[in-house]
Design a protein that fits this description.
The complex is a heterodimer.
Chain A (H helix, E strand, L loop, with lengths): L1 H6 L11 H41 L16 H8 L1 H34 L4 H13 L2 H11 L6 H5 L10 H25 L4 H9 L4 H12 L1 H16 L3 H6 L11 H10 L4 H29 L4
Chain B lengths: L9 H21 L12 E6 L3 H18 L5 E6 L4 H10 L6 E4 L5 H6 L7 H7 L1 H4 L2 H5 L2 E2 L2 E2 L2 E6 L1 E5 L1 H6 L8 H13 L3 E4 L8 H14 L1 H8 L8 H15 L7 H4 L4 H9 L3 E7 L11 H4 L6 E3 L12 E12 L6 H10 L4 H11 L19 H11 L3 E4 L1 H4 L2 H15 L5 H17 L9
Parallel strand pairs in B: 1-2, 8-9, 11-12
Antiparallel strand pairs in B: 3-11, 4-5, 6-11, 7-9, 7-10
Helix pairs in contact in B: 2-17, 10-11, 10-12, 10-20, 12-21, 20-21
The chains are: A mainly alpha, B alpha/beta.
Protein name (chain B): ABC transporter substrate-binding protein
Pfam family, one (chain B): SBP_bac_1
Organism (chain A): Phytohabitans flavus
Chain lengths: 307, 455
């Protein structure tokens, strides 16, 4: 079987001689130019993200004060973290924050978007109204809520409670304020996703007697699953980075009741001058995020969510 | 679309891109255009301002005045965010950049800065410019690290009580001099539904340490604090445990802020308003309060109330009545990388000289004066007598106390602030809180990072 092949005349080249190397050259050149155009961006990302991140990992193994240089202390910062009650408490608060963020704003966002998708008139107006809190500066939102919740002349005086001063209520209150600022964003994203669902599916379901709730569960949710999963992942990541509302509204108080990992990190870096330990906390936060992202990517592949 | 434009060869494009990337990298590393001495022929001063008025006053009366006197090497102001000024500066210093004048909110970070080689020793300038003769000895000492002068204090502070004289006379009270008198008023005021001491940390969590400093110096006493800071006794000793237990009770009884939970949500304006309206009897704060309290009283505050000040009384038998806490509210140093250190020293000197200008700064911009010898004549005639008398009172103090933000090392100080909230909310006992202070302080004392004490 090999002889005939061997004796067959060589097929005429598809293109004239020398064209293939040239095509490879063009391709190589295209890639090179593309990379060259990207180089400034890549360089700036390496400079302000990758390099500081690598440095943070390094510093997490040192006793660096944030000033000058630090001594290599191995895993001391990490072992210290295991016994640090403030770290455990902050991590616990982050988990509560995550749970609240996954339930309250997500539910509100989903139902808000679903209801909005049914509205034909003034939809843009509603969308704008929901989205506005997300665009307001955190400092402004926090100041407004501080006044609204005041135990002297705000909601606190009406209900006879001090929302931000009570250890048992403070974390939930700050998370609620965050929800207020955040859920409108979810509404807009979910709405955009819902608008891409084939209307024929709803019409068919309606003919089969499915009510709005049934349609939501059986058509809307499966259809927007990639968006939903993506936002769940993002919410978890954002929850571990929660800082601004906590820092402005309660500064981690009362008595550490609203301390989260990022406020603990900030305090260690800039008040305690323990930037090495703060870096270790930052690395652990990044690890939590990495676990979430990897889990998401694995599930995406295994379950073929975006197929 | 993949063509390199004619006239721009691949080699040149590569150079261009590489150059751009390198420029981006270097620009990022340099941290902006404020590199010390990078602008030869001038010095760069960073400053954050609480208000536009304060900035304008500074520009006219300090910056322009200095530049007029020193035209050869003028100063250039770079305004930074007030709230995170030190963090920005710390980052810039770590990147080998930053201003010629390194400013700090107190002596706390000086040791780290000095150890990292960020600060130029100032001993020669002190001799040359006569700082040792002009600056108060105790204040000068706060800038000495390992025997070298690395910073000069820019201002000094203390703690006092504000009160509304009309409220006092309405209830038949006179300003307390002893613990018994103070507690009697607090008890009676609480029973009447008033707030004995308006207090809160909603605007500034570190306000916790103002109160702890008062309790340490007026209950435990300045001698005990001094001994503990020198390592002769421990912060877990009974004198401190008893002091913190007494203080805890003040909070739990609702004497401070009205209730423990209210302490966490009371803002500074609220506290002054409570005083002006007669809802609160006292307000314990620092001398910086002189610049804050005015707008809440009299015509500006829409009332006919007046404020007055009094010294914090002794809150335990055996503690002197006239203890004034000492605090340094800011320091100035010279960046070791400054290319104009002589001009930088002149800038520091300028801000520590001319007592009349310093007196005017206090009168017109509420800028606390630097720790230099000042007489009554140095303050302008139109300066509120309450202000000048307060500074005169603690300038001539016979017993000085030690504020946590000036004389305590950083980790101990942070613990004091954080742990305090746990003490007043019942998460820690006074014994546990004091043990925590002792545990934080021990290693820092051993590491030699406790700021120097005045003689």
């Amino acid at each position: 079987m090999t002889a005939p092949t061997a004796t067959l005349p060589k097929a005429a080249p598809a293109t004239r001689p020398g064209s293939r190397p040239r095509r490879r050259r063009v391709s190589h050149r295209t890639r090179l130019v593309a990379w060259l155009f990207m180089l400034p961006l890549v360089a700036s990302n390496v400079t302000v993200i990758l390099w500081p991140a690598v440095q943070s990992v390094y510093y997490s193994f040192t006793d660096w004060s944030g000033v000058g240089s630090g001594q290599w202390i191995g895993f001391d910062n990490y072992t210290r973290m295991l016994g640090d009650e403030e770290f455990k408490s902050a991590l616990y608060h982050n988990l509560i924050w995550t749970a609240v963020s996954l339930v309250v704003p997500m539910t509100l966002g989903l139902f808000g978007a679903y209801l909005l998708s049914r509205v034909r008139r003034y939809q843009v107006l509603f969308r704008l109204a929901y989205f506005i809190p997300y665009t307001v500066a955190t400092v402004v939102s926090a100041a407004v809520w501080q006044t609204l919740l005041s135990p002297d002349n705000g909601l606190g005086s009406v209900f006879g409670v001090n929302f931000l001063g009570d250890q048992d209520l403070a974390l939930g209150t700050v998370a609620m304020v965050n929800t207020w600022a955040f859920w409108g964003f979810l509404v807009v994203i979910f709405l955009a996703s819902m608008q891409s669902v084939n209307p024929a599916l709803y019409e068919a379901a309606a003919l089969d007697g499915a009510g709005p709730f049934r349609q939501f569960v059986s058509i809307t949710l499966p259809s927007i699953r990639p968006t939903l999963v993506f936002l769940v992942v993002q919410t978890i990541i954002w929850s571990f980075l929660a800082f601004d509302f906590v820092f402005i509204l309660t500064q981690g108080g009362p008595a550490g009741a609203t301390d989260v990992l990022s406020t603990l990190l900030y305090r260690n870096a800039f008040a305690n001058l323990e930037a090495g330990y703060a870096s270790a906390i930052g690395v652990v936060m990044a690890l939590f995020t990495a676990i979430v992202v990897i889990t998401y990517q694995v599930l995406r592949r295994v379950r073929k969510w975006e197929a | 679309m993949n063509n390199v434009p004619s006239g721009l060869s691949r080699r040149n494009l590569l150079k261009l891109s590489g150059g751009t990337a390198l420029a981006t990298f270097l620009a990022s590393c340099a941290g902006g255009g404020d590199a010390p001495g990078g602008n030869s022929g001038k010095i760069v001063v960073w400053s954050g301002f609480a208000s536009k008025e304060a900035e304008n006053w500074f520009r006219t009366n300090t910056l322009e005045a200095f530049n007029k006197e020193h035209p050869a090497v003028p100063a250039e102001l770079s305004v930074k965010q007030f709230d995170n000024f030190e963090q920005q500066q710390q980052t810039a210093l770590a990147a080998g950049s930053g201003p010629d004048i390194v400013a700090a909110a107190g002596p706390g970070p000086l040791r780290e800065y000095a150890a990292a080689g960020y600060l130029l020793p100032l001993d020669d300038y002190a001799k040359k410019l006569g700082w040792n003769d002009r600056i108060l000895g105790w204040a000068m000492k706060t800038g000495v690290i390992d025997g070298k002068l690395v910073a000069l204090p820019t201002n000094y502070e203390s703690m006092q009580i504000f009160y509304n004289p009309a409220t006092m006379s309405q209830h038949g009270w006179t300003f307390p001099k002893t613990r018994a008198e103070f507690e009697a008023i607090c008890r009676e005021a609480k029973a009447k539904g008033m707030i004995p001491v308006s207090a809160g940390n909603a605007d500034y969590k570190n306000a916790n340490e103002w109160h702890v400093s008062v309790f340490l110096n007026h209950i435990a006493g300045p001698d005990a604090v001094r001994q503990a800071l020198k390592g002769e006794i421990k912060f877990s000793d009974p004198v401190f445990v008893d002091a913190m237990e007494q203080a805890r009770k003040y909070f739990v009884d609702g004497w401070w802020g009205g209730a423990v939970d209210r302490y966490f949500t009371n803002t500074f304006p609220q506290q002054y308003q409570q005083l002006a309206k007669g809802e609160a009897v006292f307000n314990i704060t620092g001398t910086w309060g002189l610049g804050e309290i005015g707008p809440f009283f009299g015509k500006e505050g829409g009332n006919d109330a007046e404020w007055a000040w009094g010294a914090v009384p002794s809150l335990r038998d055996g503690v002197p009545e006239d203890v004034w806490e000492l605090a340094v509210g800011g320091t100035n140093s010279i960046n070791a990388k400054s290319k104009n250190p002589d001009a930088a020293a002149e800038w520091i000197d300028f801000n520590m000289s001319d007592p009349k200008r310093q007196g005017r700064a206090l009168a017109e911009a509420n800028e606390p004066p630097p720790p230099i010898a000042m007489t009554e004549a140095d303050f302008p005639a139109d300066l509120d007598k309450r202000v000048s008398s307060l500074f005169a009172a603690f300038s001539s103090a016979t017993h000085v106390g030690y504020t946590t933000w000036t004389f305590f090392p950083p980790k101990t100080d942070t613990y004091i602030i954080e742990g305090w909230e746990k003490l007043i909310t019942g998460k820690l006992t006074a014994q546990a809180y004091c043990q925590g202070i002792a545990d934080a302080f021990g290693p820092e004392l051993a590491a030699g990072v406790v700021p120097p004490l005045p003689d």
